[in-house]
Every structure is written in C-alpha cells, then in structure tokens.
Amino acid sequence: MKLTRLTEIKSSSSGYDAKTKNVVSTYVLKSVYINPSYVIFMKSNSALEELSQRRDLVEGMNRDVPFTQVALSSPGMAPTMINVVGSPEQLVKKLKE
Fold first, then answer.
1. What is the C-alpha separation between 31 and 57, in angstroms, rounded?
2. Which of 13, 20, 49, 75 is the most exposed place for a label (fewest CB within 10 A)?
C-alpha cells in the first residue's frame, strides 16, 4: 500500500468574541498520510481561501495558498472530510506520484 503525505489545516475554536459576535478559531498544520485509492472527490475550499485572504491563518503562511477539501472513503461509514493545503490540480499530481 502506497501512502501519500499531505498537509492538513485544522481549526479549533478558542472562544467567542462578544465584540465581533464571532467564534474565534485558531489553525494548525499537520501531516496526514492517505491512501490515494480512498479519495472519493476533491474540491477547492473557497471559504478557507477567502478567510486566508483576510487574516493569517497560520503564522508565516502565504495568504495566497489554495486549500482543497478532500473526501476519503471509510468502509461502512460516512466519508471523512479533510482540508489540505494545495489546489485540487496540485493534489491530483501528488496522488499520482
């Protein structure tokens, strides 16, 4: 079995900002290894890209980085959704390597 390393961007809620009336989220990057044959679909994550344009999600990360939502099959369960760094086109190339 060949696994491919991708960089996942994960968010976690760090509280509620009463002034802006929004949940404050922090983001971290993590390595994730996936089996390419378990990928069901991929699509650009425009919401995350727009958020990244407005503020730094991860310190030092380029604000123009694309993000992709990836659906992974799980036998007998609903698909697992992850958000990764890179465009769908970049990920297709990486998954074929």
1. 17
2. 75
Pairing of strands 67-74, 39-44: antiparallel
CB 82 within 8 A of CB 8: yes
Any residues with CB less than 8 A from the CB of 63 and at least 6 apart, and which?
Answer: 52, 53, 56
State which H helix or E strand residue 56 sits in: none
Residue with tokens 């380029």: 62
d(CA 14, CA 93): 35
* Per-residue model confidence as pLDDT tens digits over 71-92: 999 888 889 999 999 999 999 9
Q: Where are the domains of the chain?
A: 4-96
